[in-house]
Write a structure and sequence with these properties.
Blueprint lengths: L2 H22 L2 H15 L7 H12 L14 H14 L3 H6 L4 H20 L4 H9 L8 H13 L9 H16 L4 H16 L6
């Protein structure tokens, strides 16, 4: 995939994020769907379609800070991180054979989405990101507060590809996935070795 195709793929993910939020409603499954569908448009099938439906179902409940409770991880973050981890592709068999393999997924999720959230919002939870975006956190389990939240989000321009949390998460994840899928087997092993070294030197969390 050339540079222009990559740019278009990332931009499409950012556009699909808020579009899916309007039609499917919910940050977790919408960020995931935006990533998966933008990649499919460029011929990248990250997950078989029958498995995609199951994954979508599983992510619905992670919306709104875990079960719409607000206090858990941002749903857009969860959906995007799920897609990234799929791209890293650590299988049950691989992890059983070499348990350091799981650190590849930890590294990729942290680098390509977790660090981006911390840089932009200084937070990973739904409630904290709401406060950063809107100056207030609302309990969207209460119908009146849910309507108020959508109203504030609309007034703040959060339905746009450059402002919507879902859009940004989908774009960052897509960008990361395009890098991950270009990784050679040798590069994968080199990164694993570096991660093992960093962990023992207590550098991973710095």
């Amino acid at each position: 995939m050339d540079h222009e195709q990559r740019r278009c793929c990332i931009q499409k993910a950012k556009e699909l994020g808020p579009a899916y939020e309007r039609s499917l409603v919910g940050c977790g499954h919408c960020s995931f769907a935006a990533v998966i569908d933008s990649l499919k448009l460029e011929g990248v099938l990250l997950i078989p379609e029958e498995a995609e439906e199951k994954a979508f179902s599983g992510l619905v409940g992670l919306t709104g800070g875990f079960g719409n409770m607000g206090i858990g991880s941002c749903g857009a973050l969860s959906g995007a991180a799920f897609a990234l981890s799929l791209a890293t592709g650590v299988t049950k068999e691989e992890n059983a054979r070499d348990k350091t393999s799981r650190w590849l997924a930890y590294r990729d999720v942290k680098k390509y989405i977790g660090d981006k959230f911390v840089e932009r919002w200084g937070a990973l939870t739904c409630r904290e990101i709401q406060i950063k975006n809107f100056g207030i956190a609302l309990n969207s389990r209460v119908p009146e507060r849910n309507k108020e939240l959508f109203k504030i989000a609309s007034e703040k321009g959060c339905g746009t590809p450059e402002q919507c949390t879902i859009a940004l998460a989908a774009g960052w994840a897509t960008e990361g996935i395009l890098e991950i899928i270009d990784r050679t087997a040798a590069e994968r092993e080199r990164i694993k070795a570096e991660l093992t070294s960093e962990r023992f030197a207590h550098k991973f969390w710095i």
